[in-house]
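Today's session is about reading a structure prediction critically. Students often jump straight to the picture, but the first step is always the sequence itself: look for stretches that repeat, for charged clusters, for runs of hydrophobic residues. Only then move on to the predicted structure, which in these notes is written as discrete structure tokens rather than atom positions. Here is the chain we will use throughout the hour.
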Amino acid sequence: MIVIVEERELVKEGYGALLDSEGVASAGFKANEFSEWVQSVAPDDLRSVRAILMGEDAVANLHPHTIRNRISVPMIALSDRNSLENTLQLFEAGVDDVVRKPVHVREILARIAAIRRRAQEETNFLDIGELRVFMDGRDPEISGEVLPLPRRERRILEYLATNNGRRVTKTQVFNAIYGIFDDEVEENVVESHISKLRKKLRQKLGYDPVDSKRFLGYRLATGAE
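Below is the predicted structure for this chain, in token form.
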């Protein structure tokens, strides 16, 4: 899930719609709402946040440096002004990147992926047995062969891979894929997506790489386990 912090409703809703068109969940806040939420929300919900997009006014009101003690994710400022001085001020406030509008949402997603790679000093993919899962929106590969997946199934696989070695609950998967404020989709839809994903992976791998345990959740596993 990507959080959009913006004072203007039209801008906030516009970016939310663009992210949704790319299959990325989002949640919109005004600066004061986000400040209150980030200080009070449960840690599991914070782990669902992939990045934060901020309007210029939101950066001024939030002071990104002050919220990093609660959440450490890429923070990108969306600037309305083509000014070096303004750009430097936004960086000094604590954001990781400054992007001048208008900007395509795919560029924003690419910048988020780049920031995460630099921060974690990792490649843009994870290998789990014969399965290679990319973190930049590409379909996964099995033994070098591309496995086309619908966006939701691909996002779920990316989330499981990011948490490789740890179990994640159905609620955590739902929050990461659909956003924690989506009341229009039932949480049980996760089970349907995972069932379809498991079937496709099993057909290619010869085993089920998604290990699930009741009440404990899901994790990726290799055939050797």
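Discussion point for the tutorial: The chain has a mean pLDDT of 86.
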